[in-house]
């Protein structure tokens, strides 16, 4: 038993600086994925909630296609599939794929949250003379945001873990590096255990931050 | 102040209002009564265009609105509305609820808006609740804040849609008292309510709706003591 701990600590210290660097890449990919995902999500949620049928159809098309195909296919498609039109670096192909992928799920989260705000809220706002855009911005969105934090947090955690899939196009993020390390050192047990631990810690930090933010926005609690 | 001509409103196949004519004079307090489904709440909601009428014409203080595309928010800013379920903004404190529309719609300066809001809170007896969130208030307090919020826009007419129906019995009086004070100050009011004592004491005119038409329109004394319509008589017996 102590031997295992010994080698684990050995591998851990040996890989530490490389893994920390790769963690930065993983976090960057996740951040781009989340930010782009939220922007796309908001945009398509609004399209879906609009009264114009063609706009709804565009949103439905996006959500159906993206949710209906594997992320790994989307990553490969963006990196290798569209080189005739644009060439993206592997880093950006991966980041954009993550953003587009998460956008579809986040669109549904936002749509649900916006629709979940009581109709009486918009009526009260309208009755005070507020315009539609003022009502959305100042009354509906803040309440919808509060409602969307738990599912959004879930999606963020999925995005963080899904960022490992960009290893297929060779971005030097955590999982990529772990693969290489495992193969080179012939220590897959220790390496994958350690990289799993990295993800776990990141997810726990995420969860903590989200809970803190949710509490901060919580106007219903005592 | 409000002029309604031949108002028709349907929801799908259901015709809720079947040609309503009604004129409300400045400073008049009109109470709308009727059994549920008679169309009284719908009529009220038409007056600030939360429902758009299918036919007819509504004029508010000289402005006629026929279509959704007209400048609804401008007219609505002149018409206050108090809802059965208060509809306070839960993410804003009491004072933020009140200053929201004056600042956003009337572009009032924050200091001026707060000053006015505090006067209004004082008026509804909640000066000490300025900085709490709505979920900390009782139903009666919420409704008084909602009234203050409407008044902050300095409306020309106030509409009340069953303002006490969601309240526990012991909280009804405090809301009715605020409404009574408003009426005494000369506010033009249209009130949908089941509170017959309020109607008797405060209304200038009571209007009875039945199946989408006005079947009785009289001062309180005549309404209660000498109604002309058979269904009004039945209604009065039921509620008294």
Automatic annotation (TrEMBL), chain A:
UniProt-listed SUPFAM superfamilies: MetI-like
Protein name: Amino acid ABC transporter permease
GO BP, one annotated term: amino acid transport
Highest taxon in the source lineage: Bacteria
GO CC annotation: ATP-binding cassette (ABC) transporter complex
Record has Magnesium as a keyword: no
Species assigned in the record: Jeotgalibacillus salarius
Keywords noted in UniProt: Amino-acid transport, Cell membrane, Membrane, Transmembrane, Transmembrane helix, Transport
One Pfam short name: BPD_transp_1
TrEMBL record, chain B:
Domain ABC transporter: 2-236
SUPFAM superfamilies: P-loop containing nucleoside triphosphate hydrolases
Single GO term (MF): ABC-type amino acid transporter activity
InterPro entries per record: AAA+_ATPase, ABC_ATPase_HisP-typ, ABC_transporter-like_ATP-bd, ABC_transporter-like_CS, MetN_ABC_transporter-like, P-loop_NTPase
UniProt keyword terms in alphabetical order: ATP-binding, Nucleotide-binding, Transport
Protein name per the record: Amino acid ABC transporter ATP-binding protein
């Amino acid at each position: 038993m102590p031997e295992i701990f010994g080698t684990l600590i050995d591998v851990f210290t040996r890989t530490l600086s490389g893994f920390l660097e790769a963690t930065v890449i993983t976090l960057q990919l996740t951040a781009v994925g989340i930010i782009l995902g939220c922007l796309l999500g908001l945009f398509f949620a609004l399209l879906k909630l609009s009264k114009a049928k063609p706009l709804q159809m565009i949103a439905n098309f996006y959500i159906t296609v993206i949710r209906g195909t594997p992320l790994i296919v989307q990553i490969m498609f963006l990196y290798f599939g569209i080189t005739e039109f644009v060439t993206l670096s592997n880093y950006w192909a991966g980041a954009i794929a993550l953003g587009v992928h998460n956008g579809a799920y986040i669109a549904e989260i936002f749509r649900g949250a916006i629709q979940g705000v009581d109709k009486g809220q918009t009526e009260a706002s309208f009755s005070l003379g507020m315009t539609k855009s003022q009502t959305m911005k100042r009354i509906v969105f803040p309440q919808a945001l509060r409602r969307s934090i738990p599912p959004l947090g879930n999606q963020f955690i999925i995005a963080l873990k899904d960022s490992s899939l960009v290893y297929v196009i060779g971005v030097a993020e955590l999982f990529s590096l772990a693969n290489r390390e495992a193969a080179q050192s012939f220590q897959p047990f220790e390496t994958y255990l350690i990289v799993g631990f990295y993800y776990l810690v990141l997810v726990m930090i995420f969860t903590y931050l989200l809970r803190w933010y949710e509490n901060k926005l919580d106007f219903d609690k005592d | 102040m409000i002029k309604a001509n031949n108002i028709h409103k349907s929801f799908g196949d259901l015709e809720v209002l079947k040609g309503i004519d009604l004129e409300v004079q400045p400073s008049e307090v009109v109470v709308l009564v009727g059994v549920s489904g008679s169309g009284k709440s719908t009529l009220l909601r038409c007056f600030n265009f939360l429902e758009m009428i299918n036919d007819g014409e509504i004029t508010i203080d000289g402005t006629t609105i026929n279509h959704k595309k007209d400048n609804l928010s401008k007219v609505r800013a002149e018409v206050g509305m108090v809802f059965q379920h208060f509809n306070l903004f839960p993410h804003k404190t009491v004072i933020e609820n009140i200053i929201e529309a004056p600042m956003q719609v009337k572009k009032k300066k924050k200091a001026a808006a707060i000053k006015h809001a505090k006067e209004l809170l004082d008026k509804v007896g909640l000066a000490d609740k300025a900085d709490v969130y709505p979920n900390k208030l009782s139903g009666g307090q919420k409704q008084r804040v909602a009234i203050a919020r409407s008044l902050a826009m300095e409306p020309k007419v106030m509409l009340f849609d069953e303002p006490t129906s969601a309240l526990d019995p012991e909280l009804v009086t405090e809301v009715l008292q605020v409404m009574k004070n408003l009426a005494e100050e000369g506010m033009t009011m249209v009130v949908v309510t089941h509170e017959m004592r309020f109607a008797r004491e405060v209304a200038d005119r009571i209007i009875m709706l039945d199946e989408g038409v006005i079947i009785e329109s009289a001062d309180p004394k005549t309404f209660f003591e000498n109604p002309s319509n058979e269904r009004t008589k039945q209604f009065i017996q039921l509620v008294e």
